[in-house]
C-alpha cells in the first residue's frame, strides 16, 4: 500500500494589488474590525463593506476597511 500525500496551498492573509494597496482576506479584516470572518462575509454580501469575491474567497482593500472603520466611528459619535 502506498502512502498518499496531501498537497496544501497556503494563501497569505494579505497581498498587494497593482496600485500598491494591500488586499486583506476575510480573517485579516475580522481581526482589524473585531468581528468574526462570517460577519465580515455578511457585511460584504450586504454591501456594507466593499469587497471582491473570487470563487469562495473574499478580498478587501485595506483603504476600504479603513473607510468602513472610520464611518462606523463617526456614526457612534453623532
Describe the structure using short key phrases:
78 residues; alpha+beta; Multidrug-efflux Transporter Regulator, Chain: A, Domain 2; four-stranded antiparallel beta sheet; 3 helices
Describe this structure in words.
The chain is of the alpha+beta class and 78 residues long. It has a single domain, classed as Multidrug-efflux Transporter Regulator, Chain: A, Domain 2. The protein is 42% helix and 19% strand. It contains three helices and four strands; from the N terminus they run E-E-H-H-E-E-H. The chain has helices spanning 26-33, 37-45, 62-77; strands at 14-16, 22-25, 52-54, 57-61. It has a four-stranded antiparallel β-sheet with strand order 1-2-4-3. A hairpin with a 5-residue loop joins strand 1 (14-16) and strand 2 (22-25). Helix 1 (26-33) crosses helix 2 (37-45). The radius of gyration is 16 Å and the shape is globular. Mean pLDDT is 82; it is low at 5-9.
Structural topology:
Elements: E1 14-16, E2 22-25, H1 26-33, H2 37-45, E3 52-54, E4 57-61, H3 62-77
Antiparallel strand pairs: 1-2, 2-4, 3-4
Q: Characterize the biggest β-sheet.
A: 4 strands, antiparallel
Helix content, binned percent: 40-55%
Strand order of the largest sheet: 1-2-4-3
Q: CATH top level?
A: Mainly Alpha
Class from secondary-structure proportions: alpha+beta
Strand content: 15-25%
Q: In total, how many domains does the architecture comprise?
A: 1
**Euclidean distance between termini CA atoms:** 68 Å
Low-confidence stretches: 5-9
Tell me, what's the shape? globular
